[in-house]
Amino acid sequence: CGGTEESQIDTTLRRSQMSPQGLRVRLRPGEERHFELEVFEPLESPVDLYILMDFSNSMSDDLDNLKKMGQNLARVLSQLTSDYTIGFGKFVDKVSVPQTDMRPEKLKEPWPNSDPPFSFKNVISLTEDVDEFRNKLQGERISGNLDAPEGGFDAILQTAVCTRDIGWRPDSTHLLVFSTESAFHYEADGANVLAGIMSRNDERCHLDTTGTYTQYRTQDYPSVPTLVRLLAKHNIIPIFAVTNYSYSYYEKLHTYFPVSSLGVLQEDSSNIVELLEEAFNRIRSNLDIRALDSPRGLRTEVTSKMFQKTRTGSFHIRRGEVGIYQVQLRALEHVDGTHVCQLPEDQKGNIHLKPSFSDGLKMDAGIICDVCTCELQKEVRSARCSFNGDFVCGQCVCSEGWSGQTCNCSTGSLSDIQPCLREGEDKPCSGRGECQCGHCVCYGEGRYEGQFCEYDNFQCPRTSGFLCNDRGRCSMGQCVCEPGWTGPSCDCPLSNATCIDSNGGICNGRGHCECGRCHCHQQSLYTDTICEINYSAIHPGLCEDLRSCVQCQAWGTGEKKGRTCEECNFKVKMVDELKRAEEVVVRCSFRDEDDDCTYSYTMEGDGAPGPNSTVLVHKKKDCPPGSFWWLIPLLLLLLPILCL
């Protein structure tokens, strides 16, 4: 039985539409129903574009380029639709240890000419005024934090749930551009444990009057499944614009979103406009329809005769045409080994059949568990059931103390269940199955395995919240990895591709590749994930720190000449020629006050001075002609004497 709330699609309207809008369906266990679903995506529809950008110090050149591209962004949007809005938000990370340097001077200004650290801030709510967008963007400055992963997940969640603050319009296509060059923190990844933040994210909006996220100190980052669910709920399509360095992280992440896009940014984000243009075209040609909030007793599948299905489960579509889809709704007979009629909470619910760009069909679905006619015609103590049960509606319902398909297994005596008892346990089959004729028949349709149903295939090791890293399957309590992966949770690639440096070598020759990661021989604050020196992270005052020790050791001059020169904790080596600046950690030049000459030196290694560090000093000083001007008055004094 069922009812339909029909609604005619109007192809003249510039918004996504679906018919029917509502449906009521009731099924018997094991029964299926099929119905048609019409979906219309217009050639042109309103678009809301919100740019969410990483504001850590390494993204400074990206921000500068974005400030110059306001007009180009407007051009791309105008090609999509005449009705668009554009907004901007920024994020760094939680302002707490270990994510942020909590020294007072760093909380005020983590880098020269930078803003104080913050988690997330809505800078420009969605607006039609491109000039306002450009003008507000000009005043923005970069900020900074300590660890490489950023707090972008906090920002994505707030952008999704703070509908009014961001300015999402109800009937527009919502696009969220996420721009970064770093990996991401996620729920329970360990960083918040060190910070003392243990509470889960409550998935609510927490922006103050300035648009700043306020609960960064009290709530954990959200998980990947949480973001997937919330972005789908609010019809938001993510576009991940990331650099080549962080591409591998987001290559996997974006596949969990029904409709999304991933593109590689150049190091300074100069290609962001072209990247967005490509992403828009890909997204507009695909449509995803999936069932949300479905009870466990009901299964929904969507197919189409008109449009080809993509590898990710969405459909290729032609905008401006009405697409016709077939929906199959099936009522299961058993859920985790228990008949569905014994599970009231799994029998009914409001299934939300939702396309990518609109709210979709709300389906009131349920399973009928009233007594059937065949149940009134049962064979009591039937021979088909070994005289140990009743034959009802085509199957045996065993009497107490008997089990099995034909009720031929006694469950009452201790001797019968003894083979099903695991050592040290008092429940047959670990409480996860039924003992039939001395053998365990596990519940859960494959969830439990083993002689005593002792293995739970939902309890294998996880990585980033995903069972067996989504790179294998759980069997007998252990992950069975796909080809190319290994490790207890299938999180170790056998390939060393992620350890290859920019020169094509492994770990820049400063470490070895293990489990897809470089393990550097000499760990330093200044080496990155492939053991490459991160020159931008070197202390900006390193030249000044080395100056006095270089001066006294190389030339015997300066403020440390004499005994205090022995306090210097590194060695100096005089050389005929110095390497170029890009080949060393730092190259420095200073004037020696004693002779007005300039001396130069470089430092190699990891940028941390110590007993094993060597500073290379150029043997020859650069002395300007002015250094000999003192001879002129002397010659004037001696000239009369020489003429005698």
From TrEMBL:
Q: Where in the cell is it found?
A: Cell junction, Hemidesmosome; Cell membrane
| Gene3D superfamilies xrefs | 4.10.1240.30, Laminin, ntegrin, alpha v. Chain A, domain 3, von Willebrand factor, type A domain
Record's bilayer topology term: Lipid-anchor; Single-pass type I membrane protein
InterPro entries xrefs: EGF (IPR000742), EGF_integrin_1 (IPR040622), Integrin_bsu (IPR015812), Integrin_bsu_tail (IPR012896), Integrin_bsu_tail_dom_sf (IPR036349), Integrin_bsu_VWA (IPR002369), Integrin_I-EGF_CS (IPR057243), vWFA_dom_sf (IPR036465)
Stretches of Polar residues bias are at 1-20
Q: Does the keyword Cytoplasm apply?
A: no
Q: Which GO terms fall under molecular function for this chain's record?
A: metal ion binding
Pfam families, alphabetically?
EGF_Teneurin, I-EGF_1, Integrin_B_tail, Integrin_beta
EGF-like domain residues are: 479-490
Q: Name one GO cellular component term.
A: plasma membrane
Q: Which UniProt keywords apply?
A: Calcium, Cell adhesion, Cell junction, Cell membrane, Disulfide bond, EGF-like domain, Glycoprotein, Integrin, Lipoprotein, Magnesium, Membrane, Metal-binding, Palmitate, Phosphoprotein, Receptor, Repeat, Signal, Transmembrane, Transmembrane helix
Q: Which domain of life is it from?
A: Eukaryota
Q: Which PANTHER family match?
A: INTEGRIN BETA SUBUNIT, INTEGRIN BETA-4
Family, according to the entry, reads as follows: Belongs to the integrin beta chain family.
What's the name of the protein? Integrin beta
User: In which organism is this protein found?
Assistant: Homo sapiens
Upper lineage is: Eukaryota, Metazoa, Chordata, Craniata, Vertebrata
